[in-house]
């Protein structure tokens, strides 16, 4: 076991718990986020969408079918309907009764305990969601430079540009798994507004990492589900590793 100081020196990247410690607990639930904090993850990653009646909720898929005992699109269900669902049993019976969290409760419960990597999931389905996310962050003073453990990312680049305009001091990232987005021209365009270029690990090369760094952006890559994938990204020297298993990228292991 390393002393805390030497762990700090050894750790050159952030350990980001993907949908919480979702390898061990049901994704995007308090159980998974608490587990990530217990496992000393630097950040939790969350997916934000919106209920029919306008509440911001934390869930990955655009339907509730896979991760709850309900059916239907997130955007067609009221918050009361969403909240009544069991979001834990799909993972294991011991998690029965876990609920779909709200964005607000995740901010309140985890800010200061872990960084929060906020993904705007399918924002094209939720007109105005960028303003609503911005409002919640501003209400908590989380839009200031000193609160630098909030990052916002999306696969929807227009949405990333919009949130960057609304919250100019909050770092933003673009998500992609497409090699078409790794050309010099594409990367240069991203660098005009994005702080991070966040690719799936299948398209990561040392050359890409160097190019992204050369343009002044950070690079966070996903989704680690094996020790081999973790080692690959450690070797590539990315800035953050987004993983279902925070222990796979813990230098103390
Ligand atoms: O944080 C990166 C990763 O979450 C992007 O993919 O499908 O898991 O939201 P996905
Ligand atoms: Ca995500």
Automatic annotation (TrEMBL):
One short Pfam name that applies is GDPD
Q: Does the keyword Signal apply?
A: yes
Q: Name one GO molecular function term.
A: phosphoric diester hydrolase activity
**GP-PDE domain mapped to chain residues:** 13-253
The source's domain of life comes to: Bacteria
InterPro entries attached to this UniProt entry: GP_PDE_dom, PLC-like_Pdiesterase_TIM-brl
Keyword Iron part of the UniProt annotation: no
List the protein's name.
Answer: Glycerophosphodiester phosphodiesterase
